[in-house]
Amino acid sequence: MASVDYERHDYDVLVIGAGGAGMRAAIESLEQGCRTALVCKSLFGKAHTVMAEGGMAAALGNVWPEDNWQVHFRDTMRGGKMLNNWRMAQLHAQEAPDRVLELEAWGALFDRTPDGRILQRDFGGHRYARLAHVGDRTGLELIRTTQQRAVGLGIDVYMELKIVRLLKNDSGEVIGAVGFYRDKGNFVVFSAKSIVLATGGVGKSWKFTSNSWESTGDGHALALWAGADAIEMECVQFHPTGMIWPTSARGLLVTEGVRGDGGVLKNSEGERFMFNYISPYFKDETAETIEEGDKWYEDKVNYRRPPELLPRDEVARAINSEVKAGRGSPHGGVFLDIASRRSPEYIKRRLPSMYHQFKQLADVDITAVPMEIGPTCHYIMGGIRVDADTEETAVAGLFAAGEVAGGMHGANRLGGNSLSDLLVFGRRAGLAAAERAKASSVETTLSEAQIKEVIDHATSFFANEGGENPYDLHHELQETMQNLVGIIRTESELIEAKEKLAELGERAKKVTATGGREFNPGWHLALDLESMLAVANCTTLSAIERKESRGGHTRDDYPKADPELEKVNMVSRYREGNYSVTPEPKPEMPPELMALIELSEGEGKSAPAKEESK
Amino acid sequence: MSVVEGTARPAPIPVEIGRARGGPPRSKVLRRDLWWLQPLAIALGLAAFVGYGVWTAFRGDYYFAGAHAHYLSPFYSPCFVRSCPTDVVWGPAGSIGSVSPALLVLIFPMGFRVTCYYYRKTYYRSFWASPPACAVADAGSTKPGGARSRYSGETRFPLILQNIHRYFWYVAVLFAGILTWDAIDAFRFGPNGWGLGLGTIFFVVNAGLIWAYTLGCHACRHLCGGGLKRFSQAPVRFAIWRKVVSPLNAHHQLFAWLSLFWIAWTDFYVYLVSSGAIHDPRLF
Amino acid sequence: MSAVSTGELLMKLWRGDASGGDFVEYRLPAQEGEVVLDVVHRIQATEAPDLAVRWNCKAGKCGSCSAEINGQPRLMCMTRMSTLPIDEPITISPMRTFPVIRDLVTDVSYNYEVAKLIPSFTPGPRPAEGYRMFQVDVERGQEFRKCIECFLCQNVCHVIRDHEENKAHYAGPRFLARLAELEMHPLDTLDRRAYIAERMGLGYCNITKCCTEVCPEGIHITDNAIIPLKERVVDQRYDPVAWLGRKIRGRPRPMTPADVEPYTGAAAKAARAGQAEAS
Ligand SMILES: Cc1cc2nc3c(=O)[nH]c(=O)nc-3n(C[C@H](O)[C@H](O)[C@H](O)COP(=O)(O)OP(=O)(O)OC[C@H]3O[C@@H](n4cnc5c(N)ncnc54)[C@H](O)[C@@H]3O)c2cc1C
Ligand code: SF4
Ligand code: SF4
Ligand code: FES
Ligand code: FES
C-alpha cells in the first residue's frame, strides 16, 4: 500500500469543536488529568458561540428569589412542546446555576445587580427574569472566559483543522479521527480513547440564516456516518427577527432584547398584529389588549406580557402569515418598531450593538425609523441522540454536546437555554469522556487502509475534471431548503425536496476543486457540502414523517399537534449509503416531574426582589 | 531609576521572525486619504508655539501691564528674579540674577507638556514619524540595517524618563494654582482698586483651561482613583474619577491645544497692553 | 490606473503566498447594500473559487475577516462598499504585520503565543455566599472584554509592524488590554506589573494610538488600558514616594516576573509535559 503523508497525534480525549460546549468539555477533561486535544475549524475563539447575544438561562434567583430549577424545568418543557428529553431538561435546569457561577470564578464579568450579584434579564418563554448576561454579547463572554481558562490550563489546540471522518475499530468503538489543516492543506490523524463532538449547528444549509460560516452540520454528519442516531432533525428554529435588508445582511439576527425593551411588530397597515395570533396554549399569560401589554413594561407583576414576547415559533409563524396575506413590508418582512416607542438615548444605551449593526450595515437609524425584519434560520433543536447523564451516543466512545446533540430542547428552544446547555452538557460530556478514557484499555491502533481511504476521498475533488463549481451547488441546496423545507412545510414540497436532495447528492460527489490544497475555500466547501447534505436529508425525511405541527416544525397539511406524536422521537440513521427515519418511543417522564409541568398559572408570582439596575 | 530589583533578561516570546509577509512592500503606502495632513498641521502648530515661546521668553520685557492693571503674563509667572515688578514678585525678591524670569519658570510647564501622554503622541508622530500615521511605515524602518531600523520605544534612556511625568504633574498643580492667583490678581486695577477689564476675562479663561488640562492628565486620572481595583470601596475617589477627571481626560487633546493657544494669546495681550500698542478696555 | 465605469466595481485583490504575489484585478457589477466581504465572496463564487479569505460570522462579532482595505486595517464584513470611493479601484491586501499564508489569509499564531504567556486570572478564595462585585467594579474590565480578537490593533501597531524583531518581547495592544483587564479585575490577586514591564514590553508602546483608531469595537486601548498600565508600573518602579510608602506601611514586596510566571498557560503546559514524562 502506498503510504500517505499525514501528521499523527495520540490523546486520551479528542474534543471536536471549540464553541462553548467543546471548550467546557476540554476543560473538564484536562482537569480530570487526561491528555486532551481541542480542534476547531476556524481560529481559536471564533466559534459561532461568540454570536450569542441575549444571555444564558439559569435559575440563580438573583432578581426573582422565587425562581428555582423546577420552574426553569417547567418553562423548558413547555417551550419545547413536551418533546424534550425530560432528564436532560432536568439536569440542565438543576446544574445551570453552578455552571454560570463557575464562569464567574474563571473571570467572566457579568452585568451586576445593585447588591453585587449577577443580573438577570427577561426573555421569551421564561417565567422569571433568568438570563445572566453581559450587555448584548454574552456568547463572546462565554467563549473568552472558557478560552482563557483552557489556555491557562495549557490545552493543546489545533485550529483551522477540519475533521472529515471518525475512525472505529472492529468492535465498533471510535478510536480516532482524520482531518486536515485548512491553511496548509496537510492531513492529520488523531487517535483517542474518547471523542467529544461539539460542532454546533446546521444553519448554512438554508439561504437566510443567523448562523456563521462554520454551521455546516459536520458533527451531525460525522456521528451519523459513524453509526450514531440523530433525533428530531425536523425541529429547526426560525428566529422571528432577522434582518432582511440589505440583501447582504439578510438573516443577521435582531436580538429578542429589542422586543423585551419595548419594540413591537407591525404590518404594512401599521397594525400590531401579534394580538391576533395568541394561541390558546399561552392565552393565560399573555396580554389581550395593547394597553395591558404596554403596562407590562413598567409593572411586570400585575400585568401580562405582550404577545410580541411569545416563544419564537409562535412569533415566526405569525410574521409568515402576515407576509403571506399581503401585509408585509417592501422587502418581504414586517416592521419591528422601537423608534416610535422609546427615546433615542434609551435605545442607544440598551441596544448598542443593534444600533450599530443597522447603522453600519443598512445605514438605518433604528432610533428614527422601524426595522424591517423577517424569520431567519437560527438553531436546530434536533441532533445526535445521547444518554442524558453522560452524553454518550449510540457509538461507544463517541460523545456529543451542545447544539450538535439532540433532545434537550424538544421541538422549540427557549432563548438563553442554549448557552447554559453548552456548559452543563459540555462539562458532563468531558467528564464522561475522561472517565471512559481512564478506564478503557482499548487499543487505539488505527488502520492505515481506513486512513488512506478517507484521505483519498477528501482529495478526490481535485481530480474531478470539469465538474461543477461547489458554490453553485451550495446555492442550489440553500434555495431548496429555504423554499421547500422552510418555516411552513407541506407533504408535496417535502417530497420534492427529497428528490432534489438525491440529485444534489449525486452531483456533489462530482464537484471540482481548482487550485492547490493550501487554504482553498472551494475545496473546503466541497467537503462541507457532504455534511450539509446529510443534515438536509435527515431534516427533510423527518419532516415528512412528523405529520403534525409542533414547535419549530410546522406542517400546513397537519396544522395541529398530535398527542400521539408527542410520545415519539423521529430517529435518523445512516446505513449503507442511505438516510432513513423511523419513529421510536421516547423516554417517559416520571410522575413527580410531570406534576411540575402542570403547576398552575400565577403561582409563586410576587414582586421582584431587586429592581434591575440598568 | 528602577526602585525594584530587576530580574534577568526575559525569555523571548516564541515566534519566528523574518517570514514572508503579504501585500506590496511595506514602504508603499496604500492609504488613499490625506494621511499626511494631520501630522503636518500638528507639526506646524507646535512649531509656531515654540517659535512664539522663544520670542516671548527671551524678550524679558512687557510681561506685566502693571501701570494699568495686574496682568502678569503666564509665561512669566511666578516671577522670581530681581527685575520682577515689585507688585508681583514672589519669594525673596532679588535673590536671583537678572535673566529673563520666563526662562526660570518655563522649565516646569514645558517639562509637563513634553512628558504629557498626548503631546508625546503628537511629536512622536509629527516630528519623529514613528509612525507618521496609522498603517504608514515608521521613517527609516524600511531600510534594513539603517540607523532607524530598530526601535526601542520608551524602554531606554532618554525616553524612559517619560515615566517621571507624574512629578511634573505635581508641580503643574502648583502652577495651575499660581495662574489662578494671577487670574484673581487680574481683577486688581491701580494701587488698591478692583475692576474688570477685557484682559481679566482672558486671564480667567486661561486659568480655567489650565485646570481643565491639568486635571485631565492621565497621571491625575490614575492617582485620583484609576489605580484602584475596586471602585465600590472608595466612593469619593470613584466619583472624582468618573465625574470630573475621566470626562476631562476624554477631551485632553482639546484642552491641550486650547490651553496652549490661550497661554500664548494671554501673553501676547499683556505684551500689547503693556507696550502701549492697544488699550485694554475696562468693562467694570 | 485602469478606468472604472459606472455600475461597475474594480477590485484589486492581493493574491499570492510566501513566495510572492501581486494585485489581481477583478471587475464585477456593483450591487446595492453590499459590504466588502460580499464582493470578495462574489469573486470567489465566480472567477476565483480558490481565493483564500478568512471569515466566519459576517456580523462583526468573530474578528476573522481582518484585512487592509485601501491601506486601512478594517473588518471586511463591516465595511460597506458605499463608504468607499467606488469610482476608483478598491485595493484589498492581507494584514501586513503577520506572515502570509495565501492571498488575504495571514498566520496570526504570534497572538496565540502571547496569550499563553499571560498570567491567568487568579481569584481569591470564594466566600460561602459567593463572590460579590458591583457594576462600577466590572465596567472597566467589560470594555476590554468586548474585544473580538480581530488583531487589527496588533496589525497596525508600528512596534511590531515596522520592527518585527520586537515580536519576541512585545505583547501588543490586544494583550496589554487583556493584562489591564486582569489588573483591574476586582477578584484577581496577582500583581503583574513587573511582568508587564519586563516580559510584555509595555515600554515599547509610544502611545501613538493607532490601535485605538482601528479597533472595530471602539475600545479605548491606549487611554483606558495602556496608559493606566504605564501609570501602575510607575507606581511600582519609578515612584520613590510610593516605594517609601510601601516600606513604611510594610506592604508586601511587589511580585516579580518569576512570581507570576507559573500562572501562565505556557508554564501549565510545561508542567503537564513534565508530569507525563515522569509517569
Ligand atoms: C446570532 C445568534 C444569537 C444567539 N443568541 C443566543 C442567546 O442569546 N442565548 C443562547 O442561549 N443561545 C443563543 N444562540 C444559540 C447558541 O449561540 C448556539 O446554539 C451555541 O453557541 C452553539 O454552541 P456549540 O458549542 O454547540 O457550537 P459552536 O459554537 O457552533 O461551535 C462549533 C465548533 O465546532 C467546530 N467545528 C465544526 N465542525 C468541525 C469539524 N468538522 N472539524 C473540526 N471542528 C469543527 C467549529 O470550528 C467550532 O469551533 C444564538 C445563536 C445565534 C446564531
Ligand atoms: S498606542 Fe502603543 S500599542 Fe497602540 S498602536 Fe501605538 S504603539 Fe502600538
Ligand atoms: S482590541 Fe479591538 S482591534 Fe484589538 S483585537 Fe480586540 S477588537 Fe480587535
Ligand atoms: S498632562 Fe497630558 S497626560 Fe498628563
Ligand atoms: S466575519 Fe466575523 S468579524 Fe467579519
List the helices and strands of chain C in order: EEHEEEEEHHHHHHHHHHH
Q: How many individual β-strands of chain B?
A: 2
Strand order of the largest sheet of chain B: 1-2
Helix fraction of chain C by DSSP (H/I, runs of at least 4): 25-40%
State mean pLDDT of chain B (0 to 100 scale). Answer: 90
What is the radius of gyration of chain B? Answer: 23 Å
Backbone CA Rg of chain C? 23 Å
* Strand residue percentage of chain B: under 5%
Q: Segments of chain B where pLDDT lies below 50 for 5+ residues?
A: 1-8
CATH architecture field of the largest domain in chain C: Orthogonal Bundle
Shape of chain C: elongated
> CATH superfamily of the largest domain in chain C, please?
Alpha-helical ferredoxin
Structural features, described:
- The complex is a heterotrimer of chains A (614), B (284) and C (279).
- Helices cover 35% and strands 16% of the residues of chain A.
- Chain A contains 16 helices and 22 strands.
- Chain A has helices at residues 20-31, 69-79, 86-105, 138-152, 218-225, 257-260, 290-296, 312-324, 344-350, 352-362, 417-439, 448-463, 470-484, 491-508, 521-545, 591-597; strands spanning 6-10, 13-16, 36-39, 56-57, 120-121, 131-132, 156-158, 161-168, 174-181, 187-191, 194-197, 230-231, 236-243, 264-266, 334-337, 371-380, 383-384, 398-400, 488-489, 554-555, 568-575, 578-585.
- Chain B is mainly α.
- Chain B has eight helices and two strands; from the N terminus they run H-H-H-H-E-E-H-H-H-H.
- Chain B has helices at residues 37-59, 101-114, 117-126, 165-185, 198-215, 218-226, 235-250, 252-274, and strands at 188-189, 193-194.
- In chain B, strand 1 and strand 2 (193-194) form a beta hairpin.
- In chain B, helix 5 (198-215) runs antiparallel to helix 8 (252-274).
- Chain C is α+β, with helices and mostly antiparallel strands and 279 residues long.
- Chain C folds into two domains: 4-105, Ubiquitin-like (UB roll) (Roll); 109-278, Alpha-helical ferredoxin (Fumarate Reductase Iron-sulfur Protein, Chain B, domain 2), CATH 1.10.1060.10.
- Chain C has twelve helices and seven strands.
- Chain C has helices at 36-46, 109-116, 135-145, 152-156, 158-161, 173-184, 193-198, 210-214, 221-237, 240-249, 257-260, 265-278; strands at 8-17, 20-29, 66-69, 72-75, 90-93, 100-102, 105-106.
- Classes of the chains: A alpha/beta (614), B mainly alpha (284), C alpha+beta (279).
- Chains in contact: A-C, B-C.
- One iron/sulfur cluster (SF4) binds next to helix 5, helix 8 and helix 9 of chain C.
